Amino acid sequence: MIKEKAEVVIVGGGIVGCSIAYNLAIRGVDVVLFERSYLASGATGRCGGGIRQQWSTEENIRLAMESVKIFEGLEEELDYHIEYYQGGYLVLAHTEDEVKQFKKNVSLQRKLGLNVRFLEADEINDIVPHLDVEAIGAIGATWCPTDGHANPFKTTIAYARAAEKHGAHIYKFTEVKGIKVEKGEIKEVITDKGKTKTKIVVNAAGAYSREIAKMVGVELPNKPYRHEILATEPLKHVLDPMVISFHDNVYFRQTEHGEVVGGWGDPNEPSSYNIESSFHFIVQMSRLLSRYVPKFRHVNIVRQWAGLYDVTPDARPILGPVEEVEGFIQANGFSGHGFMVAPMVAKLIAELIVEGKTSLPIESLNLKRFREGRVIKEASVVG
Amino acid sequence: MEKKDKIIVCRCEDITYDEIVQAIREGFTTPDEIKRVLRCGMGPCQGRTCMRLIQRIIAKELNKNPAEIKMPKVRPPLRPSPIGLFAGEKNDKRES
Questions:
Q1: Nearest alpha carbon to residue A26 among A191, A165, A149
Q2: Which residues of chain B have a CB within 8 Å of the CB of A298?
Q3: I want to staple A123 with a disulfide (CB 3.0 to 4.6 A). Which of A119, A166, A283, B47 is the partner?
Q4: Cβ-contact A260, A156 below 8 angstroms
Q5: What percent of chain A has pLDDT over 90?
Q6: Is A341 exposed, middle or buried (0-12, 13-18, 19+ CB in 10 A)?
Q7: Which whole-number Å values give the CA distances from A180 to A5, A176, A324, A328, in the listed order?
Q8: Structural contact between residues A158 and A16, judged by C-beta atoms closer than 8 angstroms
Q9: B84 to chain A, minimum CA–CA distance in Å?
Q10: A281 closest CA partner among B80, B83, B90, B39
Q11: What is the ipTM of this complex?
């Protein structure tokens, strides 16, 4: 049987839900988490695992920088190997417009204290020797050595385990079916395994967050989009950073195990909950990989899969309370970059719930920005 | 636990019977979770050898019928195949 009542119920056992559960549990909050499948079964366990601080908007840069500070000590804090690796991020520029935007980004990022710089085309191979800069058509890049990557499944498990150690109750294979609201206040969460009374619900259900919000009559502007990804056979360590191009909508990195993992976002992908793999993707991704690193042509692809981006109109997350229902907290809409900002987002959401204020301002990421028309679009995304 | 530390269940990633039982007892009770935490079935054979065995081990540990244990989705391509094959390019002179 599931717990009869809790101070906070979290919906969704991905990186966001599990890290919030941990941050609440260590603050002494009685917290319950429901995940309808296994932990990290959705977007988290399917994502590329990149941890990037190079963003175009101040909120994202700050969230990512603070998250990196947490990631740096996370294995020790959670006592679990999460394959964290600070190999940097190389962001390629292909057009003069991109060069202009990237230089603007770098100046904002540096102002906020990030160790990042703009590279000329002839400096790119100093960072990644195997890249065919000419074939890619790269005319510059930005480089941040403290970006990196980690294993998203293991990071989620690490947070969940630590949360449970501090008293959180995590129920896998338990699906939220409804949320009871009376006079604008949350009363209880109804699942297929029973009910839990609570006053606070955190909506961290990724691309399904809009379905959860509908249960209490709140409309989220989030839309799900399939993103596909593949992994090769393991290779000797040849690639330190994550390589990313917004122009080609492509990114790839090498895991601790040695596999090259990379994704390409199809600009014509319609919004849907489809997570089937496509042949179109494996062909496009293979063309890109063999153009980026000609030697990859001889490397075997072992598997491909897909997951859902939970995309908001400005590609920035929705964080914090909503006007219609008291105690209904949003932590969704991460638009393809939830894993990398989760450690700090989780801390802020826990602060908001426990103290009623946050150590970094998150008001500008509230749902009401879409109603009030205060929307600044994040430019540095694989769309 | 019966000593089965020398029995390799996943030949691609060298995962033993004991490691799988340990993972199940830690709460990773589905083939999908065991795959992600131990890498069983992530090697070149993509679980063709080990996943049926893991299904049986889980069933035994949890006192269930193996048919109740849901198997991970089969991921394309069916066999590991070179990037160049999908890219459809001829051998490049730059590399010879």
A1: A165
A2: 82-84
A3: A119
A4: no
A5: 96
A6: buried
A7: 13, 11, 14, 11
A8: no
A9: 4
A10: B83
A11: 0.90
Instruction: Say whether the peptide bond before residue B77 is cis (omega within 30 degrees of 0).
Output: yes
Q: Is A290 on the interface with B (CB under 8 A)?
A: yes
Length of chain A, please? Answer: 383
Average confidence (pLDDT) over A125-152 = 97
**Closest residue in chain A to residue B93, using alpha carbons only:** A294
pLDDT tens-digit series, residues A309-354: 999 999 999 999 999 999 999 999 999 999 999 999 999 999 999 9
What is the average pLDDT across B19-44? 95
Domains for chain B: give ranges and CATH numbers: 8-71+78-87 (1.10.10.1100)
Beta bridge partners of A306: A228
Q: Are A57 and A118 in contact (CB under 8 A)?
A: no
The residue in chain A having the minimum alpha-carbon distance to the alpha carbon of residue B35 is A153
Q: Report the candidate in A279, A285, A289 with the shortest Cα–Cα distance to residue A265.
A: A285
Name the residue of chain A whose CA is nearest to B38's CA: A154
Secondary element (H or E) of residue A46: helix A43-46
Asked if A36 and A180 count as a contact pair (C-beta separation under 8 A), the reply is no
